[in-house]
Amino acid sequence: EIVLTQSPGTLSLSPGERATLSCRASQSVANTFLAWYQQKPGQAPRLLIYGASSRATGIPDRFSGSGSGTDFTFTISRLEPEDSAVYYCQQYAGSPPYTSPPYTFGQGTKLEIK
Amino acid sequence: QVQLQQSGPGLVKVSQTLSLTCAISGDSVSSGRAAWSWIRQSPSRGLEWLGRTYYRSESKWYYEYAVSVKGRISINPDTTNNQFTLQLTSVTPEDTAFYYCARDLVGAGAPWFDSWGQGTLVSVSS
Fold it and tell me: Predicted confidence band at A98 (pLDDT cuts at 50, 70, 90)?
């Protein structure tokens, strides 16, 4: 199973600052099948970034992603109060047969806006 | 725009079967591009993919399940009502979680969840 480890666990920043979140995989992620989600309290996760660096429909360009292999980064360039949320990375292991779940998630980074 | 609407009980007794339904609008459960998953979220396990079903052009339905719930889980398409269902048998308190249905377009090379249901908190009690 590919384990995704996110850091830091919690990040506290002010509006206008830059947030940088990390997602490290225990094995190389196939074909940059890596996505980032935002989850606010009481809501389902929302897709922000797919293919490691492409923004989903309607996502502002303040949000960006980069990386390949085992190291991925998610950045919010200019924080706004509504960016307060938990952010998750997710990978897909590629084609079957699977010996472990094809989809796994990181444990999340909680972003607090002061 | 794809919308997923979940329904089902929020309280299940220990050893009984958890059953949830996810109704699809804006896409077809028989889509050759999509896969239809159930994912749960709890403080102890985080976001955990449970399983999926999908249809491919060779007229075959596929079913894949996480090892952690294999033997207890069944995900089934309902083409008549354009929905899919989750059944999890022999539940214990450890199955208490928010349950989500979700779609990805793995058949089009896009294995990330672009549509989610609203979530259902399922509590397992004795």
Answer: low
Q: Which two tokens stand for residue B15?
A: 């050893």
Both tokens of A32, joined, read 């940059």
Asked if B58 has any chain A CB less than 8 Å from its own CB, the reply is no
* CB contacts, 8 Å: B113 with chain A: 35, 37, 45, 47, 90
Count the neighbouring beta carbons within 10 Å of the beta carbon of residue B99. 24
CA distance B39 to B43: 14
Tokens 């940059």 correspond to: A32
Tell if the CB–CB gap between B118 and A44 is shorter than 8 Å: yes
Q: Which candidate from A44, A50, A100 shows the least CB-CB separation from B117?
A: A44
What is residue A33's predicted lDDT score, i.e. its pLDDT? 93
Euclidean distance between CA atoms A36 and A53, whole angstroms: 9
Residue B113 contacts A, CB cutoff 8 Å? yes
Identify how many contiguous H helices and E strands chain B contains and give both numbers.
0, 11
Which of A35, A43, A107 is nearest residue B112 as measured by Cβ atoms?
Answer: A35
Q: Over the stretch A71-93, which tens digit does the pLDDT of each residue have?
A: 999 999 999 999 999 999 999 98
Query: Which residues of B are less than 8 Å from A97 in CB distance?
Result: none
d(CA B32, CA A4): 29
Q: How far is CA B10 from CA A46, A103, B20, B89, B102, in A?
A: 23, 25, 9, 15, 18
